[in-house]
Amino acid sequence: MSNSILLLAPGPVQLHPKVQTILSMPMVHHRTPEFDLIFKSALDNLKFIFQTRQPAFMLSSTGTGGMECLLVNVLNPGEKVLAIINGKFGERWAEMAQAYGAEVIRYDIPWGQAASADEVKKYFEQHNDIKIVLVQACETSTATKNPIQEISTVVANTPALLLVDGITALGAYHIPMDEWKIDGLVGGSQKAFMLPTGLSFVCFSEKAWKKIKITKNRTYYFNIQNELAANLRGECLFSANVPLIRGLDYILHRMQHHGLTKHFSHIAQRANYTRSMAKIMGLELFSQSPSESVTALKLPPNVNGVKFRDDLEKKYHLTVMGGQDQLKGKIIRIGHMGYITARDLHETTLRLTRAFNENNYQMNLNEIDYQSKTLLEGQV
């Protein structure tokens, strides 16, 4: 067994080797001609990932900061917000809307199930004054993919805005902002962009910009109109995360060089491999609508999930994530984003097998090794 540390969480993820080199470069000031060129390049290329003609923005914040930026720039106190909730991060956005004075209407869905566009339509029939709809493209806590295109078709025919948490989707699979008429979309650096945590990316539709201009803004740091004005001057509004933005500029150029179709297919192949091996190992998917970016697997009932993950970390140097809230100790979540080689996939499978064998769930390691190599077709 290799002694290398493997990080196959749904974020943060393993960094691209070139990014690690870029992060070690000498620091430059964010108000210099050298950085201005990098900043402009990254901003321009972000639109390629969002698949939009609208301005895209990068903020020095976690993904949650980007979620807040989307919300506060279009929300007036007292407005009705439909929050689609099928996991931890749907709960978080609903709580955020409440904190900013929204009247939150909850569309609660059992964890592991996807939202229904037909149900969203029913909520509009019951509340024709809904102003904003909040939804996760991928609910990371359950690895569940929501039908954003279908939901958007419903919302686009109303005055309401559709805000989408794409933190575990943007850059991982197809989510074309303009084509699907998404009004606000947020991503995060620590996911498909193969960077450390610290940058969030946001973009608003033309429809959303009309609302932004008449919204009573109650934020200072996340004031997107001020950020736009600074960007049009060729600079960021506040101090920039120079090392991450240099890394981002490299990753965006790399994605453009390979093309989104090829980039997305690599992530989908990792997901397919993981699910095929899970079936061979006798493990069940948790989500009824699995995402390409992350897979959630049910742990066998005789496996202590907390001890299992502890063994993975301490004995096998493998990081995958467990469940949150009511799913703690019941599932593991394996990420498919980041810099992941075929050997990483194979080694992850072997380490999982060894850990299961030590935790009351027996598998034939030699058979798993053979099946994994067969699926990876000689890449290891």
Explain this structure.
The chain is α/β, with parallel strands linked by helices and 380 residues long. The protein has two domains: 6-13 and 259-375, Aspartate Aminotransferase, domain 1 (Alpha-Beta Complex), CATH 3.90.1150.10; 25-257, Aspartate Aminotransferase, domain 2, CATH 3.40.640.10. 41% of the residues lie in helices and 16% in strands. It has 13 helices and 14 strands. It has helices at 17-23, 33-50, 63-72, 88-99, 117-126, 148-155, 206-212, 224-232, 242-258, 260-280, 305-314, 342-357, 365-375; strands spanning 6-7, 56-60, 80-85, 103-108, 130-136, 138-139, 144-145, 161-165, 184-188, 199-204, 294-298, 318-319, 321-322, 331-335. It has a seven-stranded mixed β-sheet, sandwiched between helices. A three-stranded antiparallel β-sheet has the order 11-14-13, with helices on one face. A two-stranded parallel ribbon has the order 1-12. A hairpin with a 4-residue loop joins strand 6 and strand 7. Helix 5 packs parallel to helix 6 (148-155) and helix 10 (260-280) packs antiparallel against helix 13. The chain starts with 5 loop residues before the first strand and ends in a 5-residue tail after the last helix. The model has no long low-confidence stretch (mean pLDDT 96).
